[in-house]
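Handover notes (outgoing to incoming on-call)

Open items:
1. Extracellular solute-binding protein: sequence verified, structure written out, both below. Nothing else pending on this one.
2. Nothing else urgent.
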Amino acid sequence: MTVSRTLLKSMLAAIFLTAGFQAARADEWRTTSSLIGESKYGDNFEHYDYVNPNAPKGGTVNRVVIGTYDNFNPYIVQGSPAAGLVGFGGGLLYDTLMEQATDEGSTSHPLIADAYKYPADYSSATYRLDPRAKWHDGQPITVDDVIWSFQVLKANSPLYNRYFENVTDAVAVSDREVEFHFNQKGNRELPKILGDLVVLPKHWWEGNDASGKKRDITKTTLEPPLGSAAYKIASFKPGSEIIWQRVPDYWGAKLSVKIGRENFDKQRFSYFLDDNAGWQAFTKGGFEDFRAETRAQRWAVEYTFPAIKSGDVIKKEFPTTSPEPMQAYLINTRRPLFQDARVRQALTYAYDFESMNRTIFFGAYTRTDSYFEGGDLASTGLPQGKELEILQPFRDKLPPELFTQEFKLPVYDTPQSGRENLRKAYELFKQAGWVNQAGKLVNAKTGEVFKIEFLGNDPVDERVASPFIDNLRRLGIDATLRIVDDSQYTNRTRAFDFDMLALAGFQQSNSPGNEQRDFFSSTAADRPGSRNLAGIKNPVVDALIDRVIFATDRDDLVTATHALDRVLLWNFYMVPQWHLGKVRAAYWNKFRMPEKQPTYLGVDLDSWWIDPDKEKALAAKYQGGN
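Extracellular solute-binding protein structure tokens:
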């Protein structure tokens, strides 16, 4: 997405060789591709080097989902999709043209398409379909399916619309080849990221359901759709459970990206109203076999239930090397209250991360201070050299401090620093026209009280928001938190109906590009369902997004991303929170796994398999044999 996860690059052979990109001639068919260098697998890719290619199939993996669902069509801005379906990508049901690698960033391998090519000016891309690719009903996946999918997704999905903004159309070149045309040249990642296009079955969606009613891709549905991937819906109870069954004759089972993976016969998702209920279900067994733990306090002190003590549940940490997400308290700048950058900066000064990390998070986290945390994409120091050249034309539209001060978040490491940070916050509010009267922060001209409602969708959000709210109240702000159910939260965030979000996240890749438009561009700000939740409308940001997208090589991309990062930070659209750098997981001891896991993701559950004897023993011990 985020997520996961984004991608492509290629240029003339000489540029590839000097810039470190994959060397290949223009218009040459290529399979494995990378935006940040040559893939370690090359063209003779047999299977991922970490998987067990002989992993046995079988068993059931149980998972818990918080909330509810009412829709099997995830590509529209309506309803809540069921677990296993995703708004970007194919999820468990559909294959994409190519598949993003699990162990390398910004790298893709063949799936529905066995190869692609593009001209030297990046004005188009052609994908060649694997003749073996077929739907679950046995019909072949065709060029018509690809063209139809592109058209309906661009028309109905805000995510795909922004991602493929520069793709004008798709046309059939032959019965196996489809060509995508671009309205601009030089977008080096665009030919590759078209591999992220999910392909939908045109003949199914344009057909009739069991009652004879014509299906409609623009509407929600609870009719299990026809798919093409390794799983299909076996059964479901709307809003409470969905079970996915592995397809025994899945067409892609022998592809390089699939060997040794997707080993579970069934995947069952059970829905619970909140995380505490889900946690209790996990401790009892039978509802959730694998849990990625995101609560530091729980990880530190609550894994003491009987199954842990007996060794039937195992705790393990998996290090990650992928970029860290920008996780933050997100400010809705559509609200007049937040349109003054000094107000947003004041809110940043009011957040005490250090005390929260010490008292609530057991010192586990590191403060996030970049939209591109991790790797070489995060801005540091002062802008200089080529980055300064990029920013110079916008100097009169940017905060002057951007050019003279290194961006630093406030630090609450002593009682004195806490007082100084709150004093600085109040001074910024005062400069923006807000003053303290009788303990309340009010507008100096109108007398309006400064009010903020944080929106969350889980009781856990109270732990995340309450310390921040306490500090805001010390400044005289009428700050509150509202927890709503998952459906309300989805609808309100899609419609941008909130002041601030208690927790929001943006997952970046090692090669940012076209997805930045959906994250931060002006055109996405007012489009319901877009990922520009902050409502950013800044012509400088728009220009820098294009500068990132049309970067000429890796060095140019890194420099342009530094400039974009710096401008986003100095406009204080979000109050950054924290990151961990590893996946904390607990799992019932019914699995076996490869000796190593891909550090880019941290853990690839699809590469695990179930020991039937252990599965049976645990069921007998904790579920009476059921």
